[in-house]
Amino acid sequence: MKILIIEDEERAAAQLQDMAREIIGDATFAGTIDNIEDAVDFLTSRPDIDLIFLDIHLSDGSSFEIFKEVNVDIPVIFTTAYDQYAIRAFDVNSIDYLLKPIRKEKLQQAIQKFLRLENKRQPAMNEAVLEKIAQMIGGAKKFKQNFLVPHKDRLIPVSADEIAFFDIAGGVVTGTKFDNKKMPMEEKSLEELSEVLDPARFYRVNRRYLVNRKAIREIEYYFNGRLFVRLFPEPEEKVLISKAKAGNFKEWMGSDH
After folding, report:
1. Which band of pLDDT confidence, cut at 50, 70 and 90, is reported for residue 57?
2. How far apart are CA 97 and CA 246, in angstroms?
3. Would you say the C-alpha torsion 63, 66, 71, 73 has a positive or negative sign?
4. Which among 121, 8, 33 is positioned nearest to 74, based on CA atoms?
5. CB within 8 Å of 102: residues ≥ 6 apart
6. Which residues lie below 8 Å from residue 14, measured CB to CB, with a gap of 6+?
7. Which residues are within 8 A (CB) of 38 and not within 5 positions of it... i.e. 6 or more apart?
8. Could you please report the per-residue DSSP string of the chain?
9. String of DSSP letters for 69-134
10. For the chain, first and last CA: distance in Å?
């Protein structure tokens, strides 16, 4: 079986390849492609490929753009970091998916499903179905990349990447940049911010703090099963994660988003 991996995270691609080799003894790989343009070029050449593992979100956009440029009649198993409720639309076209971080048993089930197909060469992807999937998963959704922060009689543009964490106190949301500068935000709640920021980059650790993954320097075990998250720059109070939320947070930190 010859497999193509389209994935923009080198570590994730390597792990997927290693697990696939363990499951499929005769598996060979056509390589790894990490962007839409190269994927279109490669697939246009009608390569002799049996199966494609395709990450939904690549560094240069949604991988659904590939299907707008070239007809793909090769079976595809999508990979995604999104919750299962958001990808039920896959069922309408019998497209399988793997939820990141990918577990070996789930990969084995997906491959077994592929092997059970009597006809490995599926019809070209239906454009209407793909559009529906893209909308449900967030292929059409754009996360907020920039903020306009009020300052006196001006608005200052600030990139989301510049902000280490957001906190709320007294009904006021404040953003703290990596240089420790604090900015009042126009958003009225952390819930509002959570809905527009990329969940792979920002995590709501508790009622008061929404933190950037890049700001997390260390995690310590705390009393009663809680976690103490050390941030840089340091906030005014300890950032603690409840015992109930600790497992989910550790999974988020260890995932290859």
Report:
1. confident
2. 27
3. negative
4. 121
5. 12, 15, 16, 19, 79
6. none
7. none
8. -EEEEE-S-HHHHHHHHHHHHHH-TT-EEEEEE-SHHHHHHHHHT----SEEEEESEETTEETTHHHHHS---S-EEEEESS-GGGGGGGGGGT-EEEESSPPHHHHHHHHHHHHH-S--SPPPPPHHHHHHHHHHHTSS-----EEEEEETTEEEEEEGGGEEEEEEETTEEEEEETT--EEE-S-S-HHHHHHHS-TTTEEE-SSSEEEEGGGEEEEEE-GGG-EEEEESS--SS-EEE-HHHHHHHHHHHHS--
9. HS---S-EEEEESS-GGGGGGGGGGT-EEEESSPPHHHHHHHHHHHHH-S--SPPPPPHHHHHHHH
10. 28
Instruction: Write the pLDDT tens digit of every residue in 218-236.
Output: 999 999 999 999 999 999 9
How far is 57 from 62, CA to CA, in rounded Å? 5
pLDDT given at position 91:
45
Tens-digit pLDDT profile for residues 77-113: 888 876 554 454 454 344 677 888 888 898 988 888 8
Locate 106 and state its tokens.
């789930």
Q: Provide the CB-side half-sphere exposure for 77 (13 A, CA).
A: 24
Question: Which tokens hold the place of 178?
Answer: 């990596």
